Amino acid sequence: MEALVAVIIGVLTACGVYLSLRRRSFPVVLGITLLSYAVNLFLFAMGRLTIGRPAVIDAAAAGYTDPLPQALVLTAIVISFAMTAFVIMLALKARAELGDDRVDGNRPT
C-alpha cells in the first residue's frame, strides 16, 4: 500500500511539474493544482493514519490518532481551492484584456 501511495504522489508531482511549465495559463493552473494534491497526499500519508482509534485523548481508550495531519490537509485544501479560484479569475481577466492566455507574454506570430 505504501508503494502505491508513493507512486501516486510521484505521478501527481511529475504531471504537476510538466503542466506548470506549459505556455498557456490553464495547464499552469492545472499543474499547480496537481502539485497541491501531491503535497496534501504526502502530508496525509506522513501522518501515520490509525484506524479505529479516537482523535481526542481519552483515558479509557488504548491509544489515539494524531489529528494534526488531517487538520493541516483540510486547511491546505481550503487554501488551495481559494488560490485556484483566484488564479483562474486572474487568467480569465488577462485573457480578456490581452486576447491571449500565454504566461510568457510573447504573442504568437
Automatic annotation (TrEMBL):
InterPro entries attached to this UniProt entry: CPA3_antiporter_subunitC, NUOK/Mnh_C1-like
Keyword Transmembrane helix: yes
UniProt GO cellular component terms: plasma membrane
Main subcellular localisation: membrane
Lineage: superkingdom: Bacteria
Compartmental location: Cell membrane
Transmembrane region(s): 6-21, 28-51, 71-92
Bilayer topology: Multi-pass membrane protein
Pfam families: Oxidored_q2
Alphabetical keyword list: Cell membrane, Membrane, Transmembrane, Transmembrane helix
Similarity field: Belongs to the CPA3 antiporters (TC 2.A.63) subunit C family.
Protein name stated in the entry: Multisubunit Na+/H+ antiporter, MnhC subunit
Originating species: Thiohalobacter thiocyanaticus
